[in-house]
Amino acid sequence: MNLLLLGLDNAGKTTFLLNIKSRRVTEVAINVYPHNEEIKIGYNCFDVFDFEGREAERTSWKYYPVMDGILFLVDAADLKRFS
Q1: For the chain, which residues make up each domain, given as ranges?
Q2: 59, exposed or middle or buried, with CB in 10 Å at 0-12, 13-18, 19+?
Q3: Is 69 left (phi over 0), alpha (psi -120 to 50) or beta?
């Protein structure tokens, strides 16, 4: 199953993805390039494509390959983004 991981910059998309993959909480460097990770949960296998969230890069979101689902991550602690 192909999943697209989207969200604003600094929302924690790459951290979320790599923590799910490694099954442990770690700090991750900021991602500046789109990449994908394969994640296995039980008998299910997911190809998760992590796209950048910077405003200048968001226009590329419409060019993603065919996906089975979209995950949109929101940093609820970033109160400035909600005003």
Answers
A1: 2-82
A2: exposed
A3: beta
Q: What are phi and psi of 37, to 5 degrees?
A: -135, 145
Phi, psi of 71, rounded to the nearest 5 degrees: -110, 125
d(Cα 83, Cα 78) in Å, to the nearest integer? 10
**Is it the case that residue 14 has pLDDT exceeding 70?**
yes
Residue 55 pLDDT > 70:
no
What DSSP element (H or E) covers 48? strand 44-50
Q: What are phi and psi of 27, to 5 degrees?
A: -90, 135
Q: What would the CATH number be for the domain defined by 2-82?
A: 3.40.50.300
